[in-house]
Sequence to fold (258 residues):
Amino acid sequence: MKWRQEDGVYVLTLNDEPANEIGVASLDALEQFVAAFSADPATRAIVMHSTVPAGFCAGADLRELYRESQARPVAQRREGVHDFLTRIHAVMRAIDMAPVPSFAALHGVVFGGGLELALSCDVRIADPSTRFAFPELRLGLIPGFGGLPRLLRDVSNSLVRDMLFTGRSINANKALQCGLVTQTAAAGRALDAALAAARQSSKFDAETLAAAKAFLKPDPQDALMQEIDLFLRLFDRPLVQEALARFVNDSNPMPYLP
Fold:
């Protein structure tokens, strides 16, 4: 993961094979990215994209999560997961509630925590190859990075139930129809569209943009805290540890694909 700054536009590039899974190292990098744009008074916009062919992000690094949980005594597993969730929620909220607009250029897999990262952005632009899913129920869990409250903010409750209860993915056209993304781009051009939108927004008065964003985008903080509590309660069960063990031992390099 790396980032650059161009005329006040901070561009975050996800570049960790095979599919930008979010683990401790990538969380460290995300925290550094948030600290950089938050401390820079010249920041005018944020853009996220991936250079990995598989897609934007496949979600949490479940293999690392399983190894870390197994390395701890049973009584301490919840504490370790809670610490990780607290940190990733702080990162997502910093992007979500930043006083500048944020843009996600998406392609390929946008699953689980990857969808949650995309949902922290104000504007989402999808390549035709993009697929969106919340497959967490296959492991006996729910999304834990703030995805459900943020998705409910933008689309209908019935669509959220459909995605969560079936685990199936939706394509870019369906995502556009339901408001999950704001536009689709030609193949390979989502980043160009996101950068163009970010540069356009940076021409506007910063105080006006910040006021407009604060007015238009409610902060679902209470629901986010409830999501953490529910995730931890579900994670404690032996069923989840068994499901994670099967996931870790799957020889498929990306077993989260439907």
Observations:
- The radius of gyration is 18 Å.
- The chain is about 50% helix and 15% strand.
